[in-house]
User: Which sequence fits this backbone?
């Protein structure tokens, strides 16, 4: 592995960590709402969140490119805020990856929250705990396996993505060139030795992650084959 | 001004609850009725766990809910304790942490109980370090009751706390409930469909049927009503509060129970003389005679006056309400006997009591 490979590995880990934290912060309230709401728009929201499961990454990437680009709504907003344009930057990559991996975080969390049921809420309320208090002292501890599954899946899925990265991030060393793109470059350049090293590492990483997931939380099994 | 005032109107597509009653601010009030009568919905609405279309709920001068005035105190701000049918302990917390959950959320100045005496009262001192999944059903329910008490409630709500337990577990918990009744000054609303539990624990009785209050009043008086709907009349019987008066000669091994209307003889009791004992007499265990019966094996023979006669669900039978002095009694006899003995209000008769069930 040369320095550009290491840079790609480092960038991938940075991206996956950032995205995982963001996913937990954004996915938890969404999962929470989906688990508890009786609203009629629940299914609409659930379907939107699940879209990346079925959409080709290029479609998501294409729309994001448009929206974040100079003529898109978000692109104009970021420009007005002095942030410049996000496509082909690390920040753009973070946004795209967060959207793309959202269902892998929301679904395990939603299942975990739904499994808790109403009763612990009611019991906590009769014991003087406010809803906010109950969320932290009862729901989060009871949903811990769900959080673990969500974090692992969110992280691993971000590491493994390619199409969205290429569409929105391009292939800029140290900024958007992650491992999957780097492998693509190596193969294009017929550098099979380097491609082997990185691919082998990815294979091992993915296997270890899934093994850990199924060992510590067998109920996560029902997510396999979702992609 | 320490009574409990409840008015609820809850309309569901398949069910209507419309109740309005007042309960004493002390002792155990039972909400009793067949399943589907709305007991649990009623209790949940008092706690604020169930939406009510119209409601007024007040504990003394503490108003929890008043639709007309736009008051709805959220559940977690109501000084209540709630014991669910299934213990509903938090599985991720130890027994000690479960007990502490409500207590530490009550300001120190408002706490009414300390963990140690409550744990002793319910016999769970030895379980404090365990997780809920390491407890038996009965132990779990006792922890749930202790946890509710430690939240310093002004009102304790219990939703069939024994219904999910087998007979042995029930017998294990009932004495603790009786101790709570005797030693604590918190009013309790107790939902049950088990007549024995109600007869044993309650001081006040609210009978519910199909979402409506059928009767409400002191336990002994309410149980003795002859005009209740047939669904209650089937298991009709009265409760008498008695005092253990003394023992008969050793050879008989009988004890005397004194009550306002006379003396009952029962098998020898181990309680101290002067103890208060509550007993239940089923209407089907009472028969009537015009003269004092001679040559009968029944030892409990008492004079009584007929006060009312009512129809029952059982074909060929009627329910007779009587008074032995001030104490009420119900007897279920055949319609033929009623006609032949000419049983009517005002008639003086002798009652033969075949069975006296001591509660507790």
Assistant:
């Amino acid at each position: 592995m040369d320095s550009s490979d290491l840079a790609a590995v480092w960038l991938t880990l940075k991206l996956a960590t950032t995205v995982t934290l963001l996913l937990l912060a954004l996915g938890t309230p969404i999962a929470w709402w989906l688990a508890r709401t009786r609203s009629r728009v629940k299914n609409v929201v659930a379907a939107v969140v699940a879209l990346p499961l079925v959409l080709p990454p290029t479609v998501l990437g294409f729309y994001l490119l448009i929206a974040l680009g100079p003529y898109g709504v978000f692109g104009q907003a970021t420009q007005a805020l002095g942030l410049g344009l996000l496509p082909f930057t690390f920040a753009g990559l973070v946004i795209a990856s967060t959207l793309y991996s959202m269902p892998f975080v929301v679904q395990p969390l939603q299942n975990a929250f739904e499994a808790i049921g109403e009763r612990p809420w009611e019991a906590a309320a009769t014991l003087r705990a406010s809803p906010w208090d109950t969320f932290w002292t009862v729901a989060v501890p009871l949903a811990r396996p769900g959080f673990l599954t969500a974090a692992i899946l969110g992280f691993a899925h971000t590491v493994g993505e390619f199409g969205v990265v290429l569409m929105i991030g391009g292939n800029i060393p140290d900024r958007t060139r992650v491992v999957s793109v780097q492998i693509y470059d190596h193969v294009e350049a017929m550098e099979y030795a380097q491609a082997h090293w990185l691919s082998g590492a990815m294979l091992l990483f993915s296997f270890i992650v899934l093994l850990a997931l199924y060992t510590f939380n067998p109920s996560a099994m029902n997510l396999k084959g979702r992609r | 001004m320490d009574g409990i005032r409840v008015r609820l109107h809850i309309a569901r597509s398949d069910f209507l609850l419309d109740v309005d009653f007042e309960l004493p601010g002390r002792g155990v009030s039972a909400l009793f009725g067949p399943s589907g009568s709305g007991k649990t919905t009623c209790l949940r609405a008092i706690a604020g766990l169930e939406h009510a279309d119209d409601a007024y709920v007040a504990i003394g001068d503490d108003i929890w809910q008043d639709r007309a005035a736009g008051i709805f105190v959220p559940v977690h701000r109501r000084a209540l304790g709630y014991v669910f049918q299934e213990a509903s302990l938090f599985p991720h917390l130890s027994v000690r942490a479960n007990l502490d959950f409500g207590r530490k959320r009550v300001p120190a100045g408002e706490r009414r109980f300390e963990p140690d005496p409550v744990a002793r009262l319910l016999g769970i001192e030895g379980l404090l370090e365990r997780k809920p999944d390491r407890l038996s059903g009965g132990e779990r329910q006792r922890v749930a009751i202790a946890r509710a008490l430690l939240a310093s409630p002004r009102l304790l709500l219990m939703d069939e706390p024994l219904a999910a337990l087998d007979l042995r577990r029930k017998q294990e918990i009932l004495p603790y409930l009786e101790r709570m009744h005797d030693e604590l000054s918190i009013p309790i609303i107790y939902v049950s469909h088990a007549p024995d539990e109600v007869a044993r624990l309650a001081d006040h009785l609210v009978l519910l049927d199909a979402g409506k209050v059928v009767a409400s009043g002191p336990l002994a008086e309410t149980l003795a009503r002859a005009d209740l709907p047939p669904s209650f009349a089937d298991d009709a019987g009265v409760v008498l509060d008695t005092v253990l008066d003394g023992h008969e000669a050793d050879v008989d091994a009988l004890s005397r129970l004194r009550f306002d209307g006379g003396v009952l003889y029962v098998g020898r009791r181990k309680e101290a003389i002067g103890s208060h004992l509550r007993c239940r007499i089923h209407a089907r265990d009472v028969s009537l005679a015009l003269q004092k019966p001679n040559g009968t094996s029944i030892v409990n023979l008492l004079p009584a006056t007929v006060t009312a006669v009512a129809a029952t669900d059982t074909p060929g039978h009627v329910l007779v309400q009587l008074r032995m002095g001030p104490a009420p009694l119900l007897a279920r006899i055949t319609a033929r006997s009623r006609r032949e003995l000419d049983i009517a209000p005002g008639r003086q008769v002798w009652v033969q009591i075949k069975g006296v069930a001591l509660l507790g």
Observations:
- The mean pLDDT of chain A is 89.
- Chain A touches chain B at residues 119-120, 122-131, 133, 137-138, 141-142 (CB under 8 Å).
- The radius of gyration of chain A is 19 Å.
